[in-house]
Amino acid sequence: VIAFIFFLFSFSMAEADYTSWQDSSYDFKAVKTVYIDPMDTSDAGISSSAVEMKVKDTFYKKAMKIRGPAIVAKSPETMEVEPIEKGSSSTEESTSMVPEEAVKAGADLYIYPKLTVWQVDSYLVPSHTEWRDTVVRDFWRDKDGYWHEFYRTVTYPEYIPSYYVPCAGVAVTFEWYDVKTGKLVASSEDSRLRGSESNPQSVYDRIVDRFCKNAKNTFQGKE
Fold first, then answer.
1. CA–CA gap between residue 51 and residue 54 (Å, rounded)
2. What is the residue-wise DSSP string for 95-120?
3. Residue 216, Ramachandran bin (φ over 0: left; ψ between -120 and 50: alpha; else beta)
4. CA torsion through residues 52, 197, 62, 220, sign
5. Which of 102, 123, 162, 194 could bridge to 35 as Cys pair (CB 3.0-4.6 Å)?
6. What is the C-alpha to C-alpha distance for residues 222 and 55, in angstroms, rounded to an integer?
7. What is the pTM of this model?
8. CA separation, residue 67 to residues 22, 25, 83, 219, 220 (Å)
9. Cβ partners under 8 Å of residue 168, min gap 6
10. How many of the other CB atoms lie within 10 Å of CB of 71?
11. Comparing C-alpha atoms, which of 181, 130, 150, 149 is closest to residue 23?
12. d(Cα 105, Cα 69) in Å, to the nearest integer?
């Protein structure tokens, strides 16, 4: 019973939740230029500046390889210290999520990526007993005094003390806006929790890879 419960618990630590939406009336195939913001990490709680720069650089390099429309993105190395305030433009009253940079770039579509979760945690696996099998070499002697060898399987219990297993959790949202109208035309949220993983970067890479693949399919009109 304990082993079965442990199996279910371990399975739950490898989870992925993906939700996406697209405006069916928007013609993504007609998009010629896309302005993609740097990955917003302001709410992720990353304490290391090196890790933060790697997160931004990973997204930038992969996003620039999306095939289809022309991709305009700001390299993390050229970013200002302060993040660009969304909705900033020459008109102070503007409440659009589209930044002035996207308008100046002549983009048709603006994508705002935001890292919302970046964490390493752990869970306790309680002490338990597991059954092991081992093959034992044995011998027997026949009535004429000759020895013969054979092998048999022996099952034995092994006590496993309690231990902690690391788990990494990452979540990223992507919002797509029409530059001309400022209207939200697509969005997605990708969150993943993986057990026996202490490096969120590998989980993050999978999320970015899925975004790039889906973006390419969207611009090409594929499902």
1. 5
2. --SS-HHHHHTT-SEEEEEEEEEEEE
3. alpha
4. negative
5. 102
6. 28
7. 0.77
8. 19, 22, 27, 8, 9
9. 119, 120, 121, 193, 194, 197, 198, 199, 200, 202, 203
10. 17
11. 181
12. 13
**Nearest residue to 99 via CA among 65, 67, 73, 138:** 73
Q: In order along the chain (223 residues), what is the average pLDDT of each group of 10 residues?
A: 44 77 96 97 94 97 96 80 45 68 96 97 94 96 95 97 96 98 98 92 97 96 79
Q: What is the pLDDT of residue 14?
A: 65
For residue 6, what pLDDT is reported? 46
Name the one residue in this structure whose structure tokens are 């939200």.
Answer: 184
pLDDT the model gives residue 183: 97
Instruction: Record the tokens describing residue 54, joined without a space.
Output: 């790697």
Per DSSP, the three-state class of 32 is coil
Contact 25, 177 (CB under 8 A): no
